[in-house]
Amino acid sequence: MLYAILCYAHEETVFAWTKEEEAAVMEKLYAVQEPLAKAGKLGPVGRLMPTTAATTVRKGRDEALVIDGPFAETKEALLGFYVVDFDTLDEAVAFSKQLSSVNPGSTSYEIRPFYVFRPGDAAS
């Protein structure tokens, strides 16, 4: 089953890391990701740009409205995601716990099963 693991953290903390801090965190994250990648179970992984770069298109009953910034105002922002292929939710939870253990500060990982409507080829 495919799962999206959505990564939430305090944006001001993550984007304030020095290059050295960023490199150290990424090295630890790569170490957690590598076994999954070698097993062919790791899909795209991405970090989103800051919420200041976001644009929201919101539609109610009338025409769609374009808004600068993210829709929700929260302390933690959606900063990245993983697409993974696990047989069970327990495996996705275990992987998320590994990610959490190497990510400094306060983080949350939301795990959602999903299916692909259309694979696309934008990332290939």
TrEMBL record:
Protein name: Hypothetical conserved protein
Native species: Rhizobium etli (strain ATCC 51251 / DSM 11541 / JCM 21823 / NBRC 15573 / CFN 42)
Entry similarity comment: Belongs to the YciI family.
Domain (YCII-related): residue spans on this chain: 1-114
Domain of life: Bacteria
